[in-house]
Amino acid sequence: MTAGAGRAMIALTLCAGLAACGGTQGNRNQNVDPDIARGQSRSTIWDLFGNRSDPNTTVGVNKYLWNASLEVLNFLPVQSVDPFTGVIVTGYGTPPGGGRSYRATIQISDPALDARSLKLALQGAGGSAVAPDTVRAVEDAILTRARQLRIRDGRL
Q: What pLDDT is stored for residue 84 in this prediction?
């Protein structure tokens, strides 16, 4: 093979490879994000997690669970509250008629009045563990009070 034929073969291979990149005239948007194909674009990564229907909507917190938590644990001093994430953090306090002090962290994670929406963590003085039965009893008291508040509002 001569040098000219070798160059011609390389040029032909490059042209054939370039022609293969052309593809067909079918649906050009088949591998494109459907939102972008419809003309909707995202400006940041955080827009993926946003509520497109109403930008003012935030995480929902059940108001009955929120108020019941504050009422049942009213003997504990509130250190911080965040109604947007549903977290209430208290300091140490002693329940009426009790001799041991506790502190609590409550998270209300859903707008539904449901036991799964309520998460309670109790801690004894000095960081000691609290019996699961005690935690369950406080959760039950909060859920019962929340149901009473809902019935009182007449929204049952």
A: 83
- The angle subtended at Cα 140 by Cα 72 and Cα 150, nearest 5°, is 70
Instruction: State how far the Cα of 120 lies from the Cα of 59, in Å rounded to an integer.
Output: 18
Query: How far, in whole angstroms, is CA 82 from its chain's centroid?
Result: 14
Cα separation of 87 and 79, whole Å? 11
Q: Could you report the per-residue pLDDT of 79-111, keeping only the tens digit for each?
A: 999 988 899 999 999 998 888 899 999 999 988
Q: CA-to-CA distance for 103 and 78, rounded, in angstroms?
A: 10
| Structure tokens that stand for 148 in this block | 């009473």
Per CATH, the number for 63-153 is: 3.30.530
Domain ranges of the chain: 63-153
Per-residue confidence at 148, pLDDT binned at 50, 70, 90? very high
- pLDDT, greater one: 63 or 7: 63
Amino acid letter, 9: M
Distances (CA, A) of 46 to 41, 56, 57, 70: 12, 15, 15, 33
Q: In angstroms, how far is CA 86 from the centroid of its own chain?
A: 11
Helix (H, G, I), strand (E, B) or coil at 97: coil
DSSP for 9-41?
HHHHHHHHHHHHTT--SS-TTTTS-HHHHTT--
pTM: 0.62
